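User: Okay, second chain of the day. Same drill as before: sequence in, structure tokens out.
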Amino acid sequence: MTKPGKRIAIVCGTCGSDAVSRDAWADWDTGKQEWVLGAVFDYGHCHKCDCEASLLEVELKQAVTE
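Assistant: Same drill. Structure tokens below.
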């Protein structure tokens, strides 16, 4: 989890792209009538490299407002 106010990006450890996915499963919730995230697995994939990737969390700089 991230700290309140902290913004992050998840990027590929090889190329730095944020076009990444993580393997997961979803469960059907009959009451909500929608898919609900059930679990997130370790496998990461970079769409730019088109292969398995180590995914890294990088902190985003806060936007300057005046």
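The chain is about 0% helix and 55% strand.

User: Thanks, on to the next one.
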